Amino acid sequence: MNRAEIAEINPDAEMPDGFDSAVIGVTSDGLAVYNTEAILEILETRDGMSPEEAEEFFSYDIDGTGFEDNGPVYVRLS
């Protein structure tokens, strides 16, 4: 599922930029669902962060950004 497909289901869906490859689906309400581990891996490989830095960045700058009612859902698969 990609950004365009999610926007077709829910035009108001909010999604963080740069993490489209971490999308694993969409909820019944049309919210994007992201694999948290994939986001962390992107931060580590693309941005050169350590695992600790990636966790902190994710917590404050992605998950903690204050998306409104149409914000994404983050899941840990492991």
What does this structure look like?
A three-stranded mixed beta sheet has the order 1-2-3. 19% of the residues are buried. A hairpin with a 5-residue loop joins strand 1 (23-26) and strand 2. The two termini are 21 Å apart. It is 40% helix and 14% strand. The model has no long low-confidence stretch (mean pLDDT 95). The chain has helices spanning 3-9, 36-47, 51-62, and strands spanning 23-26, 32-35, 73-75. The longest helix has 12 residues, at 36-47. The chain is of the alpha+beta class and 78 residues long. The radius of gyration is 12 Å and the shape is globular. Helix 2 crosses helix 3 (51-62). It contains three helices and three strands, in the order αββααβ.
Summarize the structure.
The protein is of the alpha+beta class and 78 residues long. It is 40% helix and 14% strand. The model has no long low-confidence stretch (mean pLDDT 95).
